[in-house]
Design a protein that fits this description.
The protein is an alpha/beta fold. Helices cover 26% and strands 27% of the residues. It has 14 helices and 29 strands. The strands form seven sheets. A seven-stranded mixed sheet has the order 1-12-13-11-10-8-7, covered by helices on one side. Helix 4 packs antiparallel against helix 8 and helix 10 crosses helix 14. It is globular.
């Protein structure tokens, strides 16, 4: 019978240490030579969805991760640092450096292996290939192929076999293949369904008689579960995409996700017992200020921080109220920052209404009242998306709103932050038929009327499932519009001070 355990934190490491000294990162009992974990020839260290080289709200930081790896190596273990996708974008620094700073910092931190996430494609294929060439680690990509060469993108390996002492380990890497990838940036690529790719390369690993199979994946948790169910020979799925820690068992497969921004590192010690059973000892380690910075990695991080243009620190305006950029709020409900961004792109285009996919609004924190710099605004919308304007019928507008709320009550990137309209959402109805009582600028929505709609180019091109805008009349195309960050800057600068509020634009019946 299948058993699944979700959101189970098996252990939390208690961290302590003094600056300049290697930390006692794990308890002494766990590191005693007689302990089962200490017999493991391989220690996997996992991070995923890392958008900042430095700590975020005091947690994370690649220089601390580097110290952690060195401390475990100094304890006589064999740490293998893995990154499960999403790191070249998005952040303020990535908007400026296009991910160059992430590669440099991860090189310094001693990253050993990575696969691709959806945000690795944000700057286009050419930039991605350049960044892949700058990396010193092993890329493993099993389902993304360059049509020009027929090979995995950027010279990545489709699978890898390595020995760690007596343990022979096989790795494959799987990238998400859904609406979160922009079609216009993928024309040069062929993306194979992850399960189909696994069906090709897992037998290849078994043919080499590996002891352990590890999948480095950037997939939805449901897809990771499906992968483990179809291929029970997988021992560990080192996963990404979700931004919160997940530890689950699907049959015999351990699925791990370590949150985001390296606020945690998942440690998985792996061994193969006599008789064939795989042992996995799991620990979720908080990355706090108790861990000192690795000097080499910290120097790289500081060098890029100092290179950021001083213009990013220029004040654009101010906010009278805190601005809620918490991802969980933005992706499931109306927020005042969502209203501000939607109002900004509506004002930028003069459209009747605006729809912004909440996943494009970043930062995952509450910005305090006070000054707003260009850096702050870039952090709120770092992707470089362009403001577009289309004309479409009220029926299409209603379809778009329904698509945006289709995954409620789950928080999802396509959740619509809106301007110029109000609506009621009935979660008891099936997806596609949840939106009620839409009023556009005070008037009931007319399905046959034509409305002008401001949207990011990501949405125009079908991102996050907004496929209904294909074929609609484009009034402001991507090559003509302002970037989302510029539109937001113009809006704030024109007003000097903003005071956005939750106004009941989206009323969700829960």
């Amino acid at each position: 019978m299948k058993r699944t355990a979700v959101l189970v934190l098996l252990t939390l490491a208690l961290l302590a240490g003094l600056p300049g000294r290697l930390l006692p990162i794990v308890t002494a009992q766990q590191e005693e030579t007689s302990s089962p974990r200490a017999q493991s020839p391989l220690t996997l260290l996992q991070i995923n969805d890392v958008y900042s080289t430095a700590p975020v709200d005091g947690l994370g930081g690649l220089a601390r991760v580097a110290t952690l790896k060195k401390a475990i190596a100094a304890a006589g273990r064999t740490p293998f640092l893995m990154l499960a996708g999403d790191f070249l974008s998005s952040s303020v620094e990535s908007t400026v450096f296009k991910g160059e700073q992430m590669v440099a910092a991860l090189n310094a931190a001693g990253l050993d292996m990575a696969t691709l996430g959806n945000h690795e494609f944000d700057f286009g294929v050419d930039v991605l290939i350049q960044r892949m060439s700058e990396a010193k680690w092993q890329w493993v990509v099993s389902n993304v192929f360059d049509r020009q060469t027929g090979q995995p993108i950027g010279g990545a390996a489709p699978y890898v076999v390595r020995s760690f002492g007596p343990l022979k380990v096989g790795f494959i890497g799987l990238c998400i293949a859904n609406e979160s990838l922009r079609p216009d940036r993928l024309a040069r690529l062929r993306i194979v369904d992850p399960l189909e790719a696994a069906s090709t390369y897992i037998p290849a690993l078994k043919a080499q008689q590996v002891d352990v199979i590890v999948v480095l994946s950037h997939l939805n948790f449901s897809d990771d579960r499906a992968l483990a169910e179809r291929f029970p020979e997988i021992d560990v799925i080192v996963g990404g995409h979700e931004h919160y820690p997940i530890t689950a068992a699907e049959n015999r497969t351990l699925i791990s996700k370590a949150g985001s921004d390296a606020k945690f590192v998942a440690r998985i010690d792996v061994n193969r017992r006599v008789g064939g059973a795989t042992e996995r000892f799991y620990e979720l380690i908080p990355i706090t200020s108790a861990i000192p910075d690795d000097p080499q990695t910290a120097a790289v991080v500081a060098s890029y921080s100092s290179r950021l243009s001083t213009e990013l620190n220029l004040e654009v305006g101010s906010t009278r109220v805190p601005l809620d950029a918490v991802a969980l709020h933005l992706r499931s409900s109306e927020t005042n920052l969502g209203n501000l961004v939607a109002d900004a792109i509506r004002a930028n285009t003069g459209a009747d209404v605006a729809i912004v996919n909440a996943g494009g609004i970043r930062g995952d924190r509450v910005h305090p009242p006070g000054s707003l710099s260009r850096r702050d605004l870039l952090e709120m919308h770092p992707f470089g998306n362009i403001v577009c304007k289309v004309s479409a019928s009220g029926l299409v507008l209603l379809e778009a709103l329904n698509a945006g709320v289709s995954k409620l009550p789950a928080a999802a990137g396509q959740f619509p932050q809106v301007s110029g309209l109000v609506m009621r959402v009935d979660q008891s109805r099936p997806p596609g038929d949840r939106v009620r009582d839409v009023r556009v600028n005070g008037q009931a929505l007319d399905p046959g009327k034509t409305y002008t709609i401001a949207i990011p180019d990501f949405v125009l091109r079908g991102g996050d499932g907004y496929t209904m805008f294909a074929g609609q009349t484009v009034l402001i195309a991507p090559e003509l519009g302002d970037s989302m960050a510029v539109a937001l800057e113009k809006y704030v600068a024109a007003r000097g001070e903003v005071n956005p509020a939750i106004e009941g634009r989206i009323r969700v019946a829960r």
